[in-house]
Amino acid sequence: MWEFLVKPRRAAKPVPRLLESWASIKATVEGMDREISLHRFPMALDPSQDAAPEAVVWDKLDYDTRQLIEASAYSRPAWQEKIFATRKTWCEQGYFTGHEARVLALWNLRNPEASAGLLAPLRSRFAEVVVDEAQDCSAADLAILQLLHDAGLPLVLVGDPDQAIYAWRGAEPQALGAFAARLTPTPHRLTGNWRSSPVICRLAATLRTGQRPPDTSVVRDDDIPVLLLPTRFAASGSRHLHAPTGDGIVDAFRARAEEYAIEAEDCLVTAYKYATLPGITREKPNTNAITNLAWARTVAHTPDASGDDLTRACAIAVRALFGYWYPGETGGPDRISAAHRLSASQVNRTAFAFLHSLPAPHKEWGPKVWQAMKAWPPLPGAAPQGGKGRPAGKTTLSRPQPATGIRTNIIHQLKGDEADGVLLLLPDPGSVQRWATADPATDEVLRVWYVAITRARRLAAIALPEDETDALAHLLAGWRVPVHVV
Predict the structure, then answer these.
(1) Neighbours of 111 (CB within 10 A)
(2) Where is the segment annotated Disordered (predicted)?
């Protein structure tokens, strides 16, 4: 969308830039009685509305932002007006996120003058448009695809409605089904699984709509049963214990995986919420600046940190340092670097060195970070102004658990990932009842679990409250899924 439907219609100056999030730059909603970053306000686009198709999705605010808005003297309409005014200012400077890209793509395709200059090159260049992971398309995405289809571009959609887990972003399986039916009355159904064992295919089928038979395992014949681990989940924190042994649940899972010749680096632990996961392996969304820095410092000191995590950690440190060194300059770090002729390698080396110099996060970590920032040798052109740029907030990141060698992440971050062994943590009471009676067509949580299960190649394990273990074992046995309670 950005390269072919948006960017060609943008002016060359300022250079248009697509951001992953408004958090990438210092975009703060100003002129109100609270300073809140623009990225904390999720926006929705309704393509069926010609007038005022955009709105702030107030019920999707994180807890801290909701508290700030509720304590504000300004109404939500007043905030929304300022939010969109702030966004307009940044767009005029050439900055856009995926949401704005969709807004502009829709406008360009619906405007005859704009679309004429876009569609003719597309039709001549592309024989068809293939949309992978189509179940994640929002209403705006489908509206854009419909316009491309109407303009004569053949579409091929590839998707699994059972993996539709982004309703909060406007993706709905029913909308995709209706759209696909308009394209072809006889879709081609794929029933071969090139990742998982037959046992895992049977387990996954219990979480699908329509009581369809399990997929056929194409490349594996492992018969490892589904492992159910009775667990005492911590009321707070993530120190969950394997009930029969008293060991940490991740250690218990690793021991069982080793019995099937699955090494720790080939294992994955996942859950619906960050708060359930053991240790700290991912940046939590919508956290304050000092907590983000604490996460970045942890990543910088983690020997087996992923490249993606290291990249995000570096970006966090750069934003923090630039916010202090160049407090009066607008735009993202890339434009500030260009203005002062700073190379990317120079900036990144400085950011990583700063992260490595910081002590481990602790209760009074914020003041220590601030002292370190003031003492750190600045880059050329730096002009600090007193306390401007001091990372705000109180550190809420707990100390990481001892390294286990096993990757952990929330399910929503695992699309496209896989591992020989996967442990799904289900701490909430009533999960078995939900598994037995809810309909995946309308219950997104079941589809989230389905995504987790289908990440596994050889071994699927489920940790759940010890008083519900027998009930799940009985339920799965009724579906002829081999189960072993350990």
Answers:
(1) 12
(2) 380-402
pLDDT bin (cut points 50, 70, 90) of residue 287 is low
Q: Which residue has the tokens 């042994």?
A: 245
In single-letter form, the type of residue at position 444 comes to E
User: Rounded to the nearest 10 degrees, how much is the dihedral formed by the CA atoms of 287, 293, 299, 300?
Assistant: 170
Q: What is the C-alpha separation between 281 and 271, in angstroms, rounded?
A: 13
Q: Please state the pTM of the whole predicted model.
A: 0.78
355, with CB counted inside 10 A (0-12, 13-18, 19+), is: buried
Q: Where are the domains of the chain?
A: 2-105, 128-189, 198-279+402-485, 289-375
> Does domain 198-279+402-485 correspond to CATH entry 3.40.50.300?
yes
pLDDT tens digits, 73-132: 999 999 999 999 999 999 999 999 999 999 999 999 999 989 989 999 999 999 999 999
Structure tokens, 127: 């024989």
| d(C-alpha 149, C-alpha 108), whole Å | 15
